[in-house]
Amino acid sequence: MQETGAEVEISNLSVSYQRNRETVAALSGVSFRVEAGTTCAVIGPSGCGKSTLLYVLAGLIRPQDGQSLINGRETQPGRRETSLILQDYGLLPWKTVWHNTILGLVIRREAAAAIRAAGEQVLRQMGLWEMRHRYPAQLSGGQRQRVAIARSLAMRPDLLLMDEPFSSLDALTRESLQEALLDILQGGGLTVILVTHSIEEAAYLGRRIVVLTPHPGRVTAVLENPRAGDKHYRQTEQFFRLCRNLRRILEGVYHTGTNEYTARSASTRRNAGR
Ligand SMILES: Nc1ncnc2c1ncn2[C@@H]1O[C@H](COP(=O)(O)OP(=O)(O)OP(=O)(O)O)[C@@H](O)[C@H]1O
Predict the structure, then answer these.
(1) In what residue span(s) does the ABC transporter domain sit (predicted)?
(2) Residues 261 and 180 both lie in one domain
(3) What is the mean pLDDT of residues 256-274?
(4) pTM here?
(5) Is the bond preceding 77 in cis, omega lying within 30 degrees of 0?
């Protein structure tokens, strides 16, 4: 893993797709920053372009307009230190936990000893070492997601992009995975951008929370959330206030396609829980 994590800056980003001669605008004029070593949660209604945003950051899609910078450089496809975890975990069913975990390192042709050391370290870190001989079909959803995270961490990323990583898990498994992610972040050196539908997840994990409007996605609010990362935060009044605040913003977004906060908050950062 890199020392400080990546710094991400997105400015005035617009993306559209061509579908049957029709242009579908997915993102419009999206701008925000994520400081190195912090976590940013992106939340918004279905179809507002959250996955599209991650694809741009992963270098899989080129925006029609605007810029996406990682450590001051324009995003390029195949950046080695960027890792993307998709919704369906992306594990190969015919490979064991061990071989799924080291897959990226093998593709990179790293030395066998380095692969063994990295594989063991991340599997132990994710509590999967004893399960290394199992196949994905022999794992629960939560364990599969742990393998997907282990595989990403093995690549020593400085930027981890997660697309609704815990959405298909039951509430308690989801919470234990969120806490595992916080443990990983304690180690430093990693910036995380996480797309989620869950208000609680955004509030628990996102040091900064970016709220998007329905499609095309525009930034309607950017909330600062300084207590994110504290494991006791979930039980605090400040956390509940932030969730209520986020819910109000999202209700506005869902009902009107925009909301009363738009004019003020797209450019003004507001503190959480007010
Ligand atoms: N390959 C594509 N071709 C055409 N339109 C697309 C394509 N991919 C996405 N879109 C459209 O772009 C918009 C944004 O899609 P995207 O998947 O980024 O949204 P999302 O916020 O991640 O959605 P969800 O929360 O449902 O996963 C949607 O209107 C979607 O239908």
Answers:
(1) 8-239
(2) yes
(3) 42
(4) 0.88
(5) no
> What is the position in ligand 1's atom list of the atom closest to the CA of 53?
18
> Of all protein residues, whose CA lies closest to atom 7 belonging to ligand 1?
17
Task: Tell me the best of 14, 17, 57, 86 to mutate to test the pocket of ligand 1, counting ligand atoms within 8 Å of each CB and taking the most.
Answer: 17
pLDDT tier at 201 (50, 70, 90 boundaries)? very high
Same domain, 206 and 243: yes
| Shortest-distance Cα residue to atom 17 of ligand 1 | 51
Find the length of the chain. 274
Residues 40 and 166 in one domain: yes
- Closest residue by Cα to atom 28, ligand 1, is 47
pLDDT digits (tens, 9 = 90+) for 136-188: 999 988 899 889 999 999 999 999 999 988 887 888 888 988 998 898 888 88
Which domain does 214 fall in, by range?
A: 8-81+158-271
Q: How many CA atoms lie within 13 A of 208 on its CB side?
A: 19
CATH code of the domain containing 23: 3.40.50.300
Does 110 lie in the same domain as 63? no
Q: Residues 20, 134: one domain? A: no
Domain-ending residue, one of 156, 187, 210: 156
Query: What does the alpha-carbon distance between residue 68 and residue 81 come to, in Å, rounded to a whole number?
Result: 15
How far is ligand 1, taken at its centre, from the CA of residue 127, in Å?
Answer: 34
Do 114 and 59 sit in the same domain of this protein? Answer: no
First-last CA distance in the chain: 36
Beta bridge partners of 270: 223
